[in-house]
């Protein structure tokens, strides 16, 4: 008597693929967005380098990674078969990612800090800030996108998914 071929359980295979796809996309997405810090720019369709800091004393010129807090704050907030939401819970993440203007109120406490920094560094910028008659500063933060929609990331994901589907059908 010949061997009877059983019909594969396609629903079970699809469920496993969905679960693995969410896991793969979650890990790959976090790694991709964290790579923006090492690459010093964001890759969507093409790589867009970040502006360097104007008065950077770091010899490597790396921006946004002094403490790595922002880099390490990137995480998956929600993940399911239809959507994965990435983000950062760092309070300053949005202003760095999108750019914008920050208004800083000058208080007596901040003036003391400016004097402290002037004495510590000898940089006259701090002295000028301590002596200013202004009651606030407006600082323009340039856009240094590190997270967002990326055609490159989606192409990587699509390629992985196609390969994974073919691999699973070959193993039936």
List keywords for this structure.
alpha+beta, 6 helices, 48% helix, elongated
Describe the structure in your own words.
Helix content is 48%, strand content 17%. The protein contains 6 helices and 6 strands. The chain has helices at residues 10-39, 69-72, 93-98, 108-121, 124-131, 151-170, and strands at residues 41-43, 47-49, 74-79, 84-88, 100-105, 136-141. Helix 1 (10-39) packs antiparallel against helix 6 (151-170). The radius of gyration is 24 Å and the shape is elongated.
The assigned structural class equals alpha+beta
Rg from alpha-carbon coordinates:
24 Å
User: What is the residue-averaged pLDDT?
Assistant: 92
Given the structure, what is the number of helices? 6
The tally of beta strands, per DSSP, is 6
Low-confidence runs of at least 5 consecutive residues? none
Element-by-element helix/strand order? HEEHEEHEHHEH
Helix content: 40-55%
Report on the biggest sheet.
2 strands, antiparallel
Q: What global shape is seen?
A: elongated
Strand order of the largest sheet: 1-2
Into which percentage range does the β-strand content fall? 15-25%
Rounded to the nearest angstrom, the distance between the terminal CA atoms is 22 Å
């Amino acid at each position: 008597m010949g061997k009877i071929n059983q019909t594969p359980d396609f629903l079970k295979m699809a469920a496993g693929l969905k679960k693995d796809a969410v896991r793969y996309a979650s890990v790959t997405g976090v790694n991709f967005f964290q790579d923006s810090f090492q690459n010093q720019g964001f890759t969507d369709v093409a790589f867009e380098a970040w502006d360097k800091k104007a008065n950077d004393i770091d010899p490597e010129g790396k921006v946004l990674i002094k403490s790595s807090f922002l880099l390490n704050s990137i995480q998956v907030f929600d993940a399911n078969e239809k959507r994965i939401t990435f983000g950062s819970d760092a309070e300053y993440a949005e202003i760095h990612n999108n750019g914008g203007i920050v208004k800083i109120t000058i208080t007596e406490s901040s003036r003391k800090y400016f004097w402290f920094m002037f004495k510590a560094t000898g940089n006259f910028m701090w002295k000028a800030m301590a002596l200013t008659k202004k009651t606030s500063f407006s600082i323009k933060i340039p856009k240094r996108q590190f997270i967002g929609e990326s055609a490159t990331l989606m192409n990587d994901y699509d390629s992985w998914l196609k390969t994974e589907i073919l691999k699973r059908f070959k193993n039936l």
